[in-house]
Amino acid sequence: MSDMMNVSANPHIRSKDSTTKIMLLVIIALLPATGFGIYNFGLNAAILVCTSVATCVLTEFLYEKLMKLPLTIGDLSAVVTGLLLGLNLPPAAPFWLAIIGGVFAILVVKMLFGGIGQNFMNPALGARCFLVISFTARMTTFTYDGVTTATPLAMLKAGEDVNTWNMVVGTIPGTIGETSVIAILAGAVFLILFDVIDMRIPFTYLLTFVLFIGLFGPNGWDPWYLTAQLAGGGLMLGAFFMATDYATSPMTHLGKIIYGVILGILTGIFRVFSSSAEGVSYAIIISNLLVPLIERFTIPKCFGKGGENR
Amino acid sequence: MAFTFKGGIHPYDGKDLSKDKPIREFIPEGEMVYPLSQHIGAPATPVVAVGDRVLKGQKIAEASGFVSVPIYSSVSGTVKAIEKRRVTTGDLVESVIIENDGYYEEAPPLNVKPIEDMTKEDIRTLIREAGIVGMGGAGFPTHVKLSPKEPDKINYVIANCSECEPYLTSDYRRMMEVPERLVMGLKIILLLFDHAKGILAVEDNKPDCIKKLKELCVDEPRISVKVLKTKYPQGSERQLIYAVTKRAINSSMLPADAGCIVNNVDTICAVFAAVIEGHPLMYRIVTVTGDAINEPQNFFVPVGSNYAQLIDAAGGFKTQPEKIVSGGPMMGFALFDLNVPVTKTSSALLCMTKDEVAKWKPTACIKCGKCLEVCPSRLMPSKLADFAEHHDEEQFMKYNGMECVECGSCSYICPAKRQLVQSIKATRRTILANRKKKS
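Structure tokens for the assembled complex are given below, as produced in the milestone run.
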């Protein structure tokens, strides 16, 4: 037995989960929404999503090469960011918007703050908000079947009637990935089944939002109005795919619930009281900033402190 | 409904490799090594000199304090040396080395009276004299455990039959082959605690053991079998107590504070052997297993035997192992040298063809929170590891780092493959050492 054996501190076994596997599951879960977006909006949507993904991966690659850091593009997190950013662009946006957004998301929001896990806000949403502020007209003009139209959410805000069924299926104007509730929920169920996301955040988020709209919205508890609010805009995509981003959401159970409640209230405030019809992106990035604070106040009570029968 | 605790993991258990192999006696050859520190507490003091002839079952080292136990020779032969030898943890420990003459000439047994005539104190003294320690891995002297300040306040004596570590089957074989010794041993311990009930806590992946033990306990009013969910670390003392009694204790409490005494299967069988048969602790069951071993086995091994010989007895290596672990894969020690002795706490020898740890490189934390989900102490392992890596002991304590039971579930589950428990452990050691210095 003179051969060299490995020695390390225990434990000596590891689960088969890895960062790459988790990211891959998220990508798979986003495929229905992506596929529907491309089907719904056509070729330009496909070009935007691909450009966005390619830009994100390339930016991370070049940054790490230039800074002589270990390459992390293999963990696929840049692909997820690119995909989410792509799904958050209007289908008629020019391709260079995706490039600017991708560079901003990866370079400014993610890499400059230390790379994966260290970003203080969701990179895709950070980039989306940056684009909305910088290129307001291009980011808020939605075309459907070649015609520029208002989104159902904007119509709701103006007090017009909307077709709720179309909103659930997704055959409505909006950003590439946000329109189909069915496609997004399919992905969300997949993520929950594979234990990738915790249900606490999306459910408290949606519940708080519904309560808020019911209490403070213009139409009270009208079920059609509430359903339209739930199905409209980026709420579903945001609740299941962006608010649950690991790095920018609390790790503690109680923290997740508080975070979901804050998200619901903020989204409600933006949608009901602000001049814009949509508010999910801003609600999420503002809540992202509160996460360290939430975690500090929700340190779990450890086992055995507090005596019997707990 | 099976009882359990919150958190924990379900690793591949590997028990099928050795679970159906009956216990076989292992006959050692040549040199036997008896480290003087096989238990928690003061090392034993040798009572033999180089050149002395010793018999099997003869005391070779004396307990050197209350938290200390004697050590017995498991063979007959000549004391060759008393010197520092390498043990499983990698440390050099003062050891008595005996050249085995192969005759197994026996010393007279310990002084036992019929059990009816023994007082509680007699039993405790005998357990101490027999050198019995917690054989699950910790090696805490059993007589100390059995001497709580207020014995009347103990309501449960729990036999830890969970064997939650993957690959280990030594306790399982014991329960399958000699369950009556376990039940008798538990009855002896119950004699010490008038108000206690005996509980055999078994994980539900051992239905055959549960059946056997239940049959044996039909006429035992004070003993019952409790079925636990199969989950690691179900056998951890605090988690076990919680699963059985719903009483939660923290790092500053003893099991006795929750009215419990917990002992491992092998330990209880050793109590039986000592009190009824007068045998000091000389043997233990070691599972030699892993995918690199030709014939995985459960051996009845004299303490002091050589690991390399055990591997030969199990048919040698099938493939070149990349890693060899003394104990289970979660809590065991990786060996760099097989020339180390079996001690009272060696539960297994696990030989793995592939080292999963080397395959993965630690990467950045993605804050997924999976470590929080599995932590049986409900801590935030990823945060604690951050504090540990930055030597921020103040924050480490604030986040209850000292409550960690070092089960390693967090390192197992981490998708970024961070060395969570390893960092936490190192910091806990530093803090404990500093506390000792101050006091």
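The first strand of chain B starts at residue 23 and ends at 25. Chain B touches chain A through 74 residues (CB under 8 Å). Further analysis is deferred to the final report.
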